[in-house]
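To: structure desk
From: M.T.
Subject: fold request, one chain
Message: Could you run this one when you get a chance? Sequence is below, nothing fancy, just the single chain.
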Amino acid sequence: TSEEFWNIHGIAFSDDDHILFIADYIKGPYRLNTLSMELTQFQSENELSLKGIDGLLYFNNSLVAIQNGVRPNRVTRYELDQQQMRIISATIIDKAHPSFNEPTMGCIYKNKLYYIANSAWGAYDENHALKPELIKDVVVLTAELK
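Reply: Done. Structure tokens follow.
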């Protein structure tokens, strides 16, 4: 456990399982060394916000973040340095897609990202009750990853 986290919305392991990447929706992504248990928070080195991550995946030394807590909603690939200590670049995979309505979780299969474009968060009222008439058909989008 850690007092560092407010709202975890995604975890992903590095290829060797020595690094656990943790996405806190409010504070952004962290890196936990599973051998030393050292926890560090990633900092943004560009203009893109690292907050609002609602789905996190690891792919070829990069983090794929599905972000609905930023405007416009987007899917971003954050390339890591060789030591996986810093984010060295960011590439927008998709943003402001017409199907986006609180995009969320996804998975990667054979170099292809699959993710939910429209979660049901907008179908809840102010008392956290689900309003079935507001639920839309689920839209799954895809993107090729290289």
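Reply (cont.): Residues 88 and 125 are 40 Å apart (CA to CA). Let me know if you need anything else for the meeting.
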